[in-house]
């Protein structure tokens, strides 16, 4: 059977005037012949011989065969563009940073060395009698007079605290049903703590913050309106007890569960006091209860005023009581 003619590719075309090289048959026992049988054509074209050009690289342009060229001439291909060398980055910045660190370290070392070589500077004596002021005591006739009670707040608050409660307004009478037992104008911290929901915690708070004494008064107007005024005085300590107590009350008053549930209104001229109107409390079989409260502080004394009635309370009613009490302090 005649052999199949090989397929001529671009690399196997003979040049003009050059005889074609004879095809060589595969040797006996070749795998292609044994697998396909004697009648099968070869699976691939035979090699073109020693003068065949190598297959081009995957990225290279295909070879161009020029008729009449020498067999050893290389095909004309476009030169591949190689990678361009790039300058490494960050080297200059790294050198500058290293130089800065070395400069700081060297300057610090030189500074310590200079300071270590200096003689120690002696410190002045802690006790210097010449710093006493005045240098000489004033004669008895020229000594300054003590501050009047109107200017010395300590002189006013060291007296009878009950006298600092504002006078009873016109139209009011002493007494009335008070929520707390007041004996001769005084009440103890544990009794005053009963007016709070967590009386145990409030009693501990008063003891920890050095409460000094508590004065109280109750007035009555009409059949059901009652006013209660309490002055809570604290001893001098690291914490200003009156300020801390009032600010704590102002913080929880906007809460509806334990306070009035609103932000209240500022007491004019107080700088730190506010007054509040509570929501009405109703229970079956009882008359409604309206409640208002005002709180502020002056120095070491905290002011706590409550107003109760079975009829609605106006803001003016509680504000007037608070302003009168602050004027007295």
Topology:
Layout lengths: L30 H6 L54 H27 L35 H5 L15 E2 L14 H4 L6 H10 L2 E11 L3 E10 L6 H12 L12 E2 L7 E4 L12 E9 L2 E9 L5 H14 L1
Antiparallel strand pairs: 1-2, 2-3, 3-7, 4-5, 5-6, 6-7
Quick structural overview:
The protein is α+β, with helices and mostly antiparallel strands and 329 residues long. It has helices at residues 31-36, 91-117, 153-157, 189-192, 199-208, 241-252, 315-328, and strands at residues 173-174, 211-221, 225-234, 265-266, 274-277, 290-298, 301-309. The longest helix has 27 residues, at 91-117.
Structure description:
The structure is a single chain. This protein is of the alpha+beta class and 329 residues long. It has a domain at 157-328: Jelly Rolls (Sandwich), CATH 2.60.120. Helices cover 24% and strands 14% of the residues. It is built from seven helices and seven strands. It has a seven-stranded antiparallel sheet with strand order 1-2-3-7-6-5-4. The chain is flat, with a radius of gyration of 54 Å. The protein starts with 30 loop residues before the first helix and ends with a helix.
Ends apart, CA distance between termini: 135 Å
Uncertain spans: 1-52
What is the CATH topology descriptor of the domain at 157-328?
Jelly Rolls
Number of strands: 7
The mean pLDDT is 78
Q: Supply Rg.
A: 54 Å
What proportion of the residues is helical, as a percent range? 10-25%
Q: Taking strands numbered 1, 2, ... along the chain, how are they ordered across the largest sheet? A: 1-2-3-7-6-5-4
CATH structural class of the domain at 157-328: Mainly Beta
DSSP strand (E) fraction? 5-15%
Main structural class? alpha+beta
Number of helices: 7
Please summarize the sheet with the most strands: 7 strands, antiparallel
N to C succession of SSEs: HHHEHHEEHEEEEH
CATH-derived architecture of the domain at 157-328: Sandwich
Q: Using the alpha-carbon principal axes, give the shape.
A: flat
């Amino acid at each position: 059977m005649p052999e199949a003619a090989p397929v001529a590719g671009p690399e196997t075309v003979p040049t003009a005037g050059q005889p074609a090289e004879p095809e060589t048959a595969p040797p006996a026992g070749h795998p292609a012949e044994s697998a396909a049988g004697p009648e099968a054509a070869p699976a691939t074209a035979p090699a073109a011989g020693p003068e065949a050009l190598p297959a081009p690289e995957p990225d290279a342009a295909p070879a161009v065969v020029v008729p009449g060229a020498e067999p050893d001439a290389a095909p004309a291909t476009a030169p591949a563009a190689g990678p361009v060398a790039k300058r490494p980055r960050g080297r200059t910045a790294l050198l500058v940073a290293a130089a800065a660190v070395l400069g700081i370290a060297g300057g610090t070392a030189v500074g310590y060395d200079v300071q270590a070589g200096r003689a120690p500077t002696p410190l002045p004596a802690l006790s210097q009698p010449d710093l006493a002021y005045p240098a000489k005591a004033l004669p008895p006739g020229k000594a300054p007079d003590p501050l009047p009670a109107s200017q010395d707040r300590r002189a006013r608050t060291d007296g009878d605290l009950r006298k600092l409660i504002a006078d009873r307004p016109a139209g009011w009478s002493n007494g009335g049903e008070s929520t707390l037992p007041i004996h001769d104008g005084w009440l103890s911290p544990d009794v005053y703590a009963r007016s709070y929901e967590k009386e145990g915690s409030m009693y501990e708070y008063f003891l920890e913050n050095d409460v000094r004494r508590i004065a109280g008064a109750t007035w009555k107007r009409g059949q059901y309106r009652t006013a209660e005024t309490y002055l809570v005085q604290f001893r001098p300590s690291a914490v200003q007890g009156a300020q801390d107590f009032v600010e704590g009350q102002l913080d929880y008053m906007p809460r509806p569960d334990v306070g009035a549930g609103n932000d209240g209104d500022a007491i004019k001229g107080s700088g730190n006091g506010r007054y509040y109107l509570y929501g009405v409390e109703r229970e079956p079989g009882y008359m409604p209860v309206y409640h208002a409260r005002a709180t502020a502080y002056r120095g070491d004394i905290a002011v706590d005023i409550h107003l109760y009635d079975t009829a609605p309370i106006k803001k003016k009613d509680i504000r007037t009581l608070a302003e009168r009490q602050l004027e007295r302090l």
